[in-house]
């Protein structure tokens, strides 16, 4: 007889989902699935709108990473106008992208995941959360809030408000940066640098504590995909795509991100609204790949800021013989190294006098009927692909979102953790949390990845061996 | 110039791109104009997509905080009530209540402002739609109520007396 254990809702991730764990007649885990119940609709909604509206519109997909959608959408617009943008505008967009990294990474680590690290997976669930963290270390919790606020402040200064700013547009940005804002951020810099480094240290110290969890937290072979700069350095705004395998071998390099669709396909499964992107040459499901912090640190040859580069070298020691770091548990570690990079790079850009330039927007008519924008969002590579008519009216939209690109890897992670920790037909709270924590490694944003529209009900289904629903609960 | 004896924060949240979900942000826009017109100081306003942990930091700098949101609840037009700290065991960052933010403020910053929740009834939530006619009516009704309440607070030396 087949049995299904359902966990719903999955907590401390962005959006809602459920997990089903399928047991065989011996009570052993046979399969596990990460279901996303929110449905896709944003792409359809955008049809008929003007390309110039798209940055403001798509930034409304999500309240956590609006800046990434904003910049990526504006870049798709640049492509359709077929123009280069002013140097000042590009640097300001870069600062915004990094501000987005800081605020999102801080949220992921300090507010969602650090309770597991600091309090342990077996801690009472009543305290293993942000409130327990506050009890455990108030200063650490306050630092997390301040770090996130730094990222939010950058977005607010540049865009005029923290969320859903229509500041970035096709051709550049709407408003220049001010000296006063520059100085305020530079004053704040020493504190956020200290906090980012502190977070990296906290993570490193906890690795020994979780020796039982680490080997089975999404530890498998896959490809890694992300942007790199011309020297192979970590890139977040421009550059080209690099694909690396789990052995550390570059299998494709210098791919024009605007041709992403030639390299990546999207498969569907009946049990999830979230698609399953894969690397086309290997097919589905063999073309499984991961994006985001772990992928970015695996594929890059260097990081251009000194403190982050020092940490990257330590990170690479996790994998012997120059292989990739294949354990998804280390997403958190990579995420905070990226935060160190982001704050260092923001400081560097803030010292650049050209960011105060007043020429921030190039103007042109529609020069192409198709355009692709790309950038590294906090969770991984983000693509916006628009088709327009000669008046700039959107005919078709495709958004390839980081969380979707990690979908296969998240499912494999859930299955691996379930197989390692579930013994019998019961699931305890610590096991449940380990499974959820496995998903949290990827910091999934389901609002983005499904471009969710409206509120989705959560439901629990108990299914027998014939596939009949024998119990059901909705809320 | 009118200076409130207490520092007041008015914080609306919601997605203005989704119909009546943006009624709180429109409320803040209206109240911002009212504050300027009446030359009132010591009142800060903020709009956001959703509440989050870091909003506790801003609360720590104020004596009175009012959260404004839309609601599907079965109320006639709007509701206005005081709220109190509430811990919850788990949260997604897409879902955190004003009571939880207050709890974080109290816990982390040792400060407990007086917090109210103004909920304005909404009806439709489609992407790209503006406010519904009925939500606009509710916005107006709640705005008139709240301007009176705000004036009472400004005129009062002790806000608690006015609750």
Radius of gyration of chain A, in angstroms, nearest whole number: 22 Å
Beta strands of chain A, count: 16
Biggest sheet strand line-up of chain A? 8-7-6-11
Helix content of chain A: 25-40%
CATH superfamily of chain B: HybD-like
Q: State the end-to-end distance of chain A.
A: 28 Å
| CATH level 1 class label of chain B | Alpha Beta
* Residue share in helix of chain B: 25-40%
Number of helices of chain A: 14
SS-based structural class of chain B? alpha/beta
Question: In the CATH scheme, what's the topology name of chain B?
Answer: Rossmann fold
List keywords for this structure.
heterodimer; A: 475 residues; alpha+beta; four-stranded mixed beta sheet; three-stranded antiparallel beta sheet; 14 helices; 16 strands; 40% helix; globular; disordered C terminus; B: 163 residues; alpha/beta; Rossmann fold; five-stranded mixed beta sheet
Secondary structure elements and their pairing?
The complex is a heterodimer of chains A (475) and B (163).
Chain A: E1 3-7, E2 18-23, E3 29-35, H1 42-46, H2 54-58, H3 66-81, H4 87-119, H5 130-136, H6 138-159, E4 168-169, E5 172-173, H7 179-206, E6 223-228, E7 240-244, E8 250-255, E9 264-269, E10 272-279, E11 289-290, H8 293-299, H9 306-316, H10 331-350, E12 370-377, E13 380-388, E14 394-400, H11 402-405, H12 407-421, H13 429-440, H14 446-449, E15 459-463, E16 469-474
Parallel strand pairs in A: 6-11
Antiparallel strand pairs in A: 1-2, 2-3, 4-5, 6-7, 7-8, 9-10, 12-13, 13-14, 15-16
Chain B: E1 2-13, H1 23-37, E2 40-48, H2 55-59, E3 64-71, E4 78-83, H3 98-109, E5 114-121, H4 133-155, H5 159-162
Parallel strand pairs in B: 1-2, 1-3, 3-5
Antiparallel strand pairs in B: 4-5
